[in-house]
Write a structure and sequence with these properties.
With about 375 residues, the protein is α+β, with helices and mostly antiparallel strands. The chain contains ten helices and 15 strands.
């Protein structure tokens, strides 16, 4: 995945719109999220690549530059560059300054390695809700695993917390790469830009810098929560080196209902109606989210016709009113008729007189017109 383009990483085409890109990113992020793949370094790497790809492709300016120049063009965005007073010999140093800006540049002040966290303090857990739990709200107990900085190594992952200068980058956090006459910097692959590395791993945490612990919390889920919504639980995330604790984010997935279909705060329900009920304009009792409603059909109700019950939908999760319930009529017809039913239908049709034969005037004029073509 490392050598793939941003489009290939998210598995979208180059002409994909923002909605498609966002949907693909969410699916990939869920699949490779570290909380779902504890200890899986490959999944963690893929998760970072997905984030990197989405940050670029979701930004019109970055995406345009990436499409034209690739990742090197994006690296140049941060450097700004400077005008060279020299000749051709200065061209390499000018490119070096441009591209090093993205990775931090030699003049950028690096953070103290002992202060840098090895993991994000904020964390995410996924929660599945039934349709009615999401509609009416509920309370849920969440059990989760969070990271706590290892005390013996002070969260560094090094034995006794002792770090030494990275040999590959000599403590710079970056290594220089050259392609032809172009020279640019990139984050040191050995120390990941920190500039320091452990000479021996901490035995307490196996060099990870943290220990995993179990936690639980009860959350009150508001009415109207929808698929993909997130809820923040303050101060229940991972714990850092200095005891600072991040937030826990709960991402919801709502299971679909057999009868009701949600579209925003509106709810749709399909109502099967026999053709005689539609013709006569019968009144039906239908289910709603809170009970039963009376549906008065029009005389001659059409197939797929919608009847709207205002305010009978889902309560907005932010408290901005309620949606509507939309009943869609699906007219059904008999698959076969007995002799008595045929006779009754013929009598019914005859009782409407000329009104029951609207096709005749249309067909007669069409036939006359067709005959005129051959005269």
């Amino acid at each position: 995945m490392q050598d793939l383009s941003y489009y290939e990483i998210l598995e979208v085409s180059r002409d994909a719109d923002k909605t498609t890109i966002k949907k693909a990113y969410r699916a990939m992020a869920k699949k490779y999220h570290p909380d779902k793949n504890s200890g899986n370094t490959e999944a963690e790497h893929k998760f970072k690549l997905c984030n990197e790809a989405y940050q670029c492709l979701s930004d019109d300016k970055q995406r345009s530059i990436y499409d034209r120049y690739g990742k090197e063009g994006l690296q140049g965005m941060g450097g700004g560059g400077r005008r060279s007073s020299g000749g051709f010999d200065d061209l390499g140093s000018m490119f070096e300054e441009m591209f090093s800006g993205f990775a931090g540049g030699g003049s950028r002040r690096r953070q103290n390695p002992t202060d840098m966290e090895k993991y994000n303090l904020d964390m995410n857990v996924d929660m599945y809700l039934s349709f009615n739990e999401a509609i009416f709200g509920c309370e849920k107990d969440i059990e989760f695993t969070y990271k706590n900085a290892c005390k013996p190594c002070n969260g560094t992952g090094a034995k006794d917390g002792k770090l030494s200068t990275c040999k590959q980058c000599n403590g710079q956090g970056q290594v220089m790469m050259q392609q032809g006459f172009m020279t640019f910097s990139q984050t040191c692959p050995a120390c990941h830009g920190v500039g320091s590395a452990s000479t021996a791993s901490c035995k307490s945490c196996d060099g990870t810098g943290y220990n995993e612990e179990r936690g639980n919390v009860t959350v009150k889920i508001p009415k109207g929560i929808d698929d993909g919504n997130r809820l923040r639980v303050s101060g229940k995330g991972n714990i850092g080196k200095r005891g600072t604790r991040g937030d826990l984010y709960v991402t919801f997935s709502v299971k679909p209902d057999k009868h009701f279909q949600r579209e925003g705060n509106d709810v749709y329900i399909a109502i099967p109606v026999f053709f005689t009920q539609a013709v006569s304009g019968e009144t039906l009792t239908i289910p709603s989210l809170t009970g039963e409603l009376e549906l008065k059909l029009d005389i001659g109700t059409r197939d797929k016709q919608h009847f709207t019950f205002r305010g009978e939908g889902i309560e907005d999760v932010h408290g901005h009113g309620k949606g509507n319930l939309i009943a869609q009529v699906n007219i059904t017809y008999p698959k076969k008729l007995n002799d008595e039913q045929k006779e009754l239908l013929e009598k019914l049709q005859a009782s409407f007189g000329i009104e029951s034969k609207p096709h005749e005037s249309v067909l007669d004029s069409a036939i006359d017109k067709m005959k005129s073509w051959f005269n």
